Amino acid sequence: MSCTAEIQAAFILSSIVTFFSGLFILLTSRLIWRGIEKRQKSHRHSRSLSFQGAFRDRIEMLLSAQTFVGQVLVILVFVLSIGSLVIYFINSTDPVRSCSSYQDKTIPIDLTFNAFFSFYFGLRFVAADDKVKFWLEMNSIVDIFTIPPTFISYYLKSNWLGLRFLRALRLLELPQILQILRAIRTSNSVKFSKLLSIILSTWFTAAGFIHLVENSGDPWLKGRNSQNISYFESIYLVMATTSTVGFGDVVAKTSLGRTFIIFFTLGSLVLFANYIPEMVELFANKRKYTSSYEVVKGKKFIVVCGNITVDSVTAFLRNFLRRKAGEINTEIVFLGEVPPSLELETIFKCYMAYTTFVSGSALKWEDLRRVAVDSAEACLIIANPLCSDSQAEDTSNIMRVLSIKNYYPNTRVIIQILQSHNKVFLPKIPSWNWNSGDNIICFAELKLGFIAQGCLVPGLCTFLTSLFVEQNKKICPKVPWQKHFFSGLKNKILTQRLSDDFAGMSFPDVSRICFVKMHLMLIAIEHKSVCHGYCGLILNPSAQVKLLKNTLGFFIAESAKDVKRAFFYCAICHSDVYTPELIEKCNCRSKNHRHMAGNCTLRLSLTLHLWVWPRKGGGPSLKRKCPFGIYEMEQDHLDNTGMFHWCRATPLDKMILKRTDKSKHEFRNHIVACVFGDAHSTLMGLRNFVMPLRASNYTRKELKDIVFVGSLDYLQREWRFLRNFPQIYFLPGSALYSGDLHAVNIEECSMCAVLSSPSKSSSSPTLVDTEPIMATLNIGSLQISCCAQTPSEPQCGGCFSRNPRKSQYRRIPIITELKNPSNIHFIEQLGGMEGNFSGTSLHLSTSFATGTVFSGSFLDSLLATAFYNYHVLELLQMLVTGGISSQLEQHLDKEKYYGLNDNSCTVLSRSSRCKLGLLSLNQTILSDIQPRRTFGQIFCGSLDRLGVLCLGLYRMIDDEEFVITRPENEFRLLPSDLVFCAIPFSTSYYKKDISSPNLYDNINIVPLSEDTSQI
Q1: What phi and psi values does residue 520 have, to the nearest 5 degrees?
Q2: Residues 389 and 761 sit within 8 Å (Cβ to Cβ)
Q3: Coil, strand, or helix at residue 983?
Q4: What is the pLDDT of residue 74?
Q5: Within 10 A of 898 (CB to CB), how many other CB atoms are there?
Q6: Among residues 97, 152, 462, 753, which is most buried (max CB within 10 A)?
Q7: Domain 491-597: which CATH number of 3.40.1550.10, 3.30.70.1450, 3.30.310.260, 3.40.50.300
Q8: What integer pLDDT is reported at residue 940 of this predicted model?
Q9: Distance (Å, rounded) from C-alpha 753 to C-alpha 648?
Q10: Residues of the chain whose pLDDT is less than 50?
Q11: What's the rounded Cα separation, in Å, for the pair 153 and 155?
């Protein structure tokens, strides 16, 4: 039957009257109550208040779903609201202007639902603190405009659709209901359910309003402009409007409908522009990055997690995939905690043949299962060296290692650590295993170790760095020095098992054969020591160490193909071959070794007596008696490991210098370290800088004073890690102030190191190096007369003159650390050499070629190096840190555990390891090597006569020295050339007085007996 206008008005007015009358009553009651409170100051009954408060608290607990009954109540209200909405959908199939008979079975069901809604409305009203605010809430408005018409329908015995479409707004509570049911747990699912509920409730409510006004017509026209439109068509119109398309097949004809569409279109612009793309992104990311990695039998893969950013991924892929395309058979699975950016997605698409991205966290076992960590070759964890909180970065990465090792203990883990003191936690993990390839790349340890080596030996920092830098850019050298320098950059550290024909031979003999016949430079071997109980690396072993079968050799060479010759070498087939290309795999089967096989021997003189005096602070004092007299390590107190010089802790105030006491501290041939930091800066770990400078393979007399210039607040925090190292001083001040530099006698220093400031947030990557750059410019501007030349480098200290008419000055030797390598152009002008390479690459700059700048950015490449060949990383750590490697650390831990650290043989051997130095051809022991016109001649002569291993050259051009890594055998030498060498500990490389019967100050350990001692 048809609903008259009076019946429709009764339904609508019932809700309007209820809303406004209730609001009026609440506002009036509030005003009256406030007036009563002002007039009467009587005390309320505490018992009544206590009862009301307890009752209200119970209702609030019920409505907030904090109890099981409350959860059931909230879920029931939502389900009944959806049920009432479904009844509306069913009734909407009838014409809007018609009233359904009370015989309709849906009417009593809907009446029952609304009776329950009335009860729930009453509970909410009682629990509300602010009744007026409650009355104006959306859920309250929905109840007010849907519940009264239901009771009117019971009174009138007829039902009308009216505003029952407002029940669709209850869909906004869908996320809360799903969380109560624990159907959603992740943030993405909560976000998606919220977006879905907003869109659906908006569509259904707007469609209900359009359905009502279009079927009823404008009231003032008494329905003459109405049109028959179904609820589905109304939804279609609303969706077309939301998408801002508007096809025009279904349109609003009433004035109310069109006015609503105008405002709804404006709202749709916001809704569609903000929510729909976000939903699409959620869908796309879920499908794209939440799937599991499928393991293919026979195909190797690694998992990379941690700091997955554009810069870190680019650097890692550049180094990991630097091999030829046919040689890469390992896929890379990146496990990132956030979806990749568009730029990162582009990188993955460029390397889609090798890379896969999976969204997840290494801290969750479910995500580790999805990337199949238990089947991976290794798990690599990348750190962010530019983060503002390095401690938090290290802690999170250590937790990732712990999670991975707990999930699958046999997983090989290679981790980057920023601060060295955090390394100690990793070996404590029960399943951590150095022997299976687990490794730690400590940025602070390596970075400061490189700089320390550059302070000990000018140019050595560049020499070592060039062995690990991969240069892919094509360069056209313009001047000769560029050709020599760039040619040296092609050499790398490579490993290769040596031919068994070398077994029983001494290292100098094998190194000479490799150099002469194969054009390979063998610098170190992996040696199994019986006396020491561990397998470690030895740089330039003495002639008394004999090689074993299957010995691993370390070479400086250009390609792995070249070093294969050391494995193919046959003493029979290749005895007369001096062309490297002809040394190939032979078919010779007569490998009966003519040399002594088995354990190598070290012959020690029986007249070499060792007395171990009581340790002072854990270090031994050793006195040696040899045929030439007594050589005593004067009070050489070493630490428990025997690796570093040690002293008793000194109060900090005694090590602090004052500008007024300059005459008291006339430093000369010392090292100045410029430090930037304050009381709140992250500690950079200056201990890692000091340890290589206090290595025990340098005698106490060879140690140089170290003077730190920086904030006292910062240096005080570092002092507890430095107080047991001798000859360390602090000057409170700044390298930006020339007066502080002169106070430490910088004009007499052997090297000035400018260390980058600790990690701090910066708006621009360029600004992270502001202080080191300004300090470098300040130091470079100091003009020091040549007469103030330091005694440590008479052979290499050169004077330069910008203008021949003016007096000559020399540069203060300096090495600057840059966090951002692209900042090299700010200090490149101080290089002093002509013929710069084009571009701003740090490793192609003249500053890098001369050894005056260092950047730890290349350390990212060590992650790939450690995966492919962790032995190379071991050698680098040994060279840079003063002799400490992971193998030695493991051995020292065992010694400490078993109480073996008082073994005099162990202490002696650790302090007697080789040291790196820079020797002149004229003023050192190399002057007696004849002939020495080429690098090959000086290499063979020094190795045969002195046991000194030559590695490279430091050549002077334009009054500046530049590094030449591994020159060719026939490379012509200049009289001014300096030679990078691995020098035995017992050899003093400076000449004594010529009149002296002993030309060199040499400590020789020679065999005087046939007895041997096993190593």
Answers
A1: -115, 145
A2: no
A3: strand
A4: 85
A5: 9
A6: 462
A7: 3.30.70.1450
A8: 94
A9: 26
A10: 42-49, 51, 589-635, 789-807, 895-908, 993-1015
A11: 5
Domain ranges of the chain: 5-183, 292-446, 491-597, 652-817
Dump pLDDT digits (tens) for 475-521.
777 788 888 888 888 899 999 999 999 999 999 999 999 999 999 99
Which position has the token pair 């800066």?
681
Alpha-carbon distances of 528 from 597, 598, 905, 1014, rounded to whole Å: 14, 11, 15, 11
Q: Are 810 and 860 in contact (CB under 8 A)?
A: no
The reported pLDDT for the residue numbered 230 is 84
Closest CA to 567 of 576, 578, 555: 555
Q: Output the pLDDT for position 180.
A: 82
Please tell me the distance from the alpha carbon of residue 384 to that of residue 37, in angstroms, as a whole number.
63
Widest distance between CA atoms in the chain: 133
> What are the tokens at 232?
């589905």
Helix axes 935-945, 507-518, angle to 10 degrees: 160
Amino acid at 776: T
Angle at 802 between CA 797 and CA 803, to 5 degrees: 125
Per the structure block, which two tokens stand in for 143? 């109840």
DSSP for 716-782 reads HHHHTTTTTSSSEEEEES-TTSHHHHHHTTGGG-SEEEEPPPPP---SSGGGGGHHHHHHHHHHHT-
User: Considering only CA atoms, which of 891, 883, 878, 892 is closest in space to residue 910?
Assistant: 883
- Measured CA to CA in angstroms, residue 550 lies from 496, 497, 500, 553, 732 at distances of 10, 6, 6, 9, 54
Taking each helix axis from N to C end, the angle separating 886-898 and 870-881, rounded to the nearest 10 degrees, works out to 70
* Contact present, 809 and 800 (Cβ < 8 Å): yes
d(CA 673, CA 683): 15
Query: What DSSP string describes 843-866?
Result: GGSHHHHTT-EE-GGGGGHHHHHH
Place of tokens 């750059």: 773
CATH of 292-446, one of 3.40.50.720, 3.40.50.300, 2.60.120.200, 3.40.640.10: 3.40.50.720
In terms of DSSP H, where are the helices of 860-903?
A: 861-868, 870-881, 886-898
SS3 714: helix
Q: How many other β-carbons are positioned within 10 Å of the β-carbon of residue 355?
A: 19
Our CA dihedral for 266, 268, 269, 271, rounded to 10 degrees, sits at: 130
CA distance 393 to 417: 8
Determine contact, residues 498/551, Cβ cutoff 8 Å: yes
Assigned CATH topology for domain 652-817: Rossmann fold (3.40.50)
The beta strand positions in 483-634, using DSSP E, are 492-497, 521-528, 535-539, 552-557, 601-602, 609-612, 622-626, 629-632
pLDDT at 839: 55
- Please name the residues in contact with 243: beta carbons below 8 A apart, sequence gap of 6 or more: 268, 272
Place of tokens 């943030």: 187
Contacts for 475 with CB less than 8 Å, ≥ 6 apart: 482, 486, 837, 844
Token pair 């929905």 is at which residue? 142
